[in-house]
Amino acid sequence: MSGLFFTCEKCRKNKIESEFLPTKSEFFPTGHTCVCIECVEDMIDENDGSLEFIDKICRWIDIPFIPDRWIEYSTVNGSAALSDYVKTTIAESYPMVDWAATNQEYKELQEQGNLRSSLSILKDKDLQKLRDKWGEEYLDDELAYLEDLYQGILQTQNVNSKLQMDDTIKICKIDLLIDKRIRAGEDFDKLLKSSDTLRKSAGFTDKNIKNACDFDSVGEVFAYFEKQGWLNEFYDDTPRDQVDLVMKDTQLWLRNLYKNETGIGEDVDRRIEALKIADEMENALLAAPDDGLDDFENEAFNLEEFDEEAGL
């Protein structure tokens, strides 16, 4: 390194100071990272912009990892938002200006399964998807109720057709109305009958709930095993049924026929020799002179004319 130019440890190119990320880490006495911004952005793309990888970068630079902020920046500029995120975050003051404090909070949310709900942007996106699916008239908690019930039905019932999926959505909406009327102390008998009718129409019964996790045929068992990565090595040269026995006997008969039956070879040789002789005779006839056959034919023709004139 010399002056305001640095050599990137990854691409080995000499670049100016502004093309490297700033850092307060004691491991980088120059105040900049040893890998250029372009190379770091390429690594983010290679890792599909995962939060875990951004977390590693923050640890490397020794700045707080704020998932909500990073998602806000990256939504607009993708991996190119890294420079703005680092410059903004490193310029702010925190009770602990290092990566450890915010990383611990991030890990706790991740372990509790509350990471998505804590990130406002992700939460807004999820809610918008639910509104597009269920409608704009529902509150956030009602959307969560509808989606949870819908996924529960899909996991416990055999929902295959579009008609069944449509019935499932209607059932969820009716059940939400029933729940609201129960809390309000209002009558819900008609809604309950409608829900029961739809469930029976869609085939959502206790029997189906039981069978949803069971196997109804041998084919489903093998399909399940294959999804788990198991492949049946079917051919092991051992007959499994009558069809296998017939196939094996046929193969053995053909093998013995050509290996042990000596007469077949002799018959083939005789047939080839006979074809050769027939071919030679045909060629000989084609090449032979006519030996006056045309004159003899003409004499016979004249004799027939004489007999006609003589009245014979």
Count of domains: 3
The count of β-strands is: 4
Work out the radius of gyration: 44 Å
Which overall shape is indicated by the principal axes computed on the Cα atoms?
A: flat
By DSSP (H or I, 4+ residues per run), the number of helices equals 15
Counting helices, strands and paired strands, the structural category is mainly alpha
Mean pLDDT: 75
Strand order of the largest sheet: 1-2
Poorly predicted parts: 94-99
Order of helices and strands: EEEEHHHHHHHHHHHHHHH
Largest β-sheet summary: 2 strands, antiparallel
Assembly state: single chain
Q: State the end-to-end CA separation.
A: 132 Å
The percent range for strand residues is: under 5%
Residues in helix, %: 55-70%
Commentary on this structure:
The protein is mainly α and 312 residues long. It folds into three domains: 5-118, no CATH class; 122-223, no CATH class; 243-309, no CATH class. Helices cover 66% and strands 4% of the residues. The chain has helices spanning 37-46, 51-61, 67-77, 82-91, 100-112, 115-118, 120-134, 140-156, 162-184, 189-202, 206-211, 218-227, 242-260, 262-287, 293-309; strands at residues 5-7, 14-16, 20-22, 32-36. Strand 1 (5-7) and strand 2 form a beta hairpin.
Sum this structure up briefly.
The protein is mostly helical and 312 residues long. The protein has 15 helices and four strands.
Which SSEs are present, and which pair or pack?
Layout: E1 5-7, E2 14-16, E3 20-22, E4 32-36, H1 37-46, H2 51-61, H3 67-77, H4 82-91, H5 100-112, H6 115-118, H7 120-134, H8 140-156, H9 162-184, H10 189-202, H11 206-211, H12 218-227, H13 242-260, H14 262-287, H15 293-309
Antiparallel strand pairs: 1-2, 3-4
Helix pairs in contact: 7-8, 8-9, 9-10
